[in-house]
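Encode chain A's predicted structure.
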Amino acid sequence: MTTNLKPLRILVIVILALLAIQYEFGMAVNIANPPSIPPFSFSFSAFRSALDQAGVVALLHAGLGGWLVIFTVINLILTLRTRVKSVQVFGVLSFISIASAAGGGLFFVLSGFQNDHASHAMATNFLLSFALFFIELYLIKPNSKSKVN
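Encoded structure for chain A:
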């Protein structure tokens, strides 16, 4: 079965590049030591206000995190369409790890930047997703023996 994997390869490379930028933004936010504010319930305005208090880089970090979730959903759809079990498995795992990292980030902000467990969950799942996307990229590499585009 020949499947055109080129769009998926391009998407995975874009996601890996965005994850590298996300890492830099996350480290900048961490080093800047965001303010401790009282924990709050979720609302878009309260969430945005908390990020504004933490600075522009925190806002960029959260925004890029949202885009990464969207790109990972697209990646999930493309991997499930390949009908290659190993690619499908890593597509699903990559999605779960990105969603878990985003959840950790959300809970960290909602805690008023105080819940170190949520921050740790964000960082660990970021690292896991970075590794999983590299494995996925390896699995969808062009094979010189068979004609796969």
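The CA atoms of residues 40 and 110 lie 6 Å apart.
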